[in-house]
């Protein structure tokens, strides 16, 4: 793993991309001014679902992962690279920061392989990233990346944004990984958990207290922690503590 010091990876979910506050951009500026490298990995799940429905396609997810047939893959590509990514790049640029859209259509950036083609169709799991390309981009820009991977035969695969971002955070040796979503953290009823141990998460999974899109998020968080990332935050605002998951709290 080529360590890139001082890198912050922020995954922004599809709902959150539409709700970015002035405080969000102020925090990006503060990190940028402090010399941190910033990579945004964006989702767009609600937008993909909405466009799929408009086009008469069936929307199906299993454990928070979209079942992606070849038509849904086209919609995913069009929505992520045609709508969500340009909109985010424009917002970052409008806040006076240098944004660079990173996607799998030119130089491969994320490499993947089928997760389980029979079950999920055109869905990938991350196998590698183009370290040199990303490192060069982050030296000068805030990277804005879509979770689309390329497989060894050059075929595009849809990767869950949380899973992709966690793998990228791990491979970049990021110091911090933030999952910006539409809820203030991991919740039990109306209460936000300030921290979450592996044991507690296992219990919550068993009791079905973690469902839908929160499942890949928590799995992604632990994947990152188990592989070198020190701190993961799940929140809906960068200025709120949300739920913090620490490497030191992996056990217990
Ligand atoms: N225990 C939980 N705490 C918070 N959210 C949960 C929990 N279990 C399931 N969820 C659901 O997970 C959703 C967040 O995942 P998702 O919709 O995929 O967001 P994103 O687009 O940001 O990835 C929440 O809106 C909520 O409906
Ligand atoms: C395979 C898979 O599930 N891919 C996701 C990619 C986008 C995403 O993760 O968007 P959110 O972060 O908004 O959920 C999807 O198609 O919805």
TrEMBL record:
Residue ranges of coiled coil: none
Main localization, broad class: cytoplasm
Residue ranges annotated for the Aspartate/glutamate/uridylate kinase domain, each copy included: 7-236
Subcellular location: Cytoplasm
GO terms for biological process, alphabetical: L-arginine biosynthetic process via ornithine
One GO MF term attached to the UniProt entry: ATP binding
Pathway field: Amino-acid biosynthesis; L-arginine biosynthesis; N(2)-acetyl-L-ornithine from L-glutamate: step 2/4
E.C. numbers: 2.7.2.8
Protein keywords: Amino-acid biosynthesis, Arginine biosynthesis, ATP-binding, Cytoplasm, Kinase, Nucleotide-binding, Transferase
Site (Transition state stabilizer): 11, 217
Summary of the function given for this chain in its UniProt record: Catalyzes the ATP-dependent phosphorylation of N-acetyl-L-glutamate.
Cross-referenced HAMAP family: ArgB
Protein known as: Acetylglutamate kinase
Annotated source species: Lentilactobacillus farraginis DSM 18382 = JCM 14108
Source taxonomy: Bacteria, Bacillati, Bacillota, Bacilli, Lactobacillales
Gene name for this UniProt entry: argB
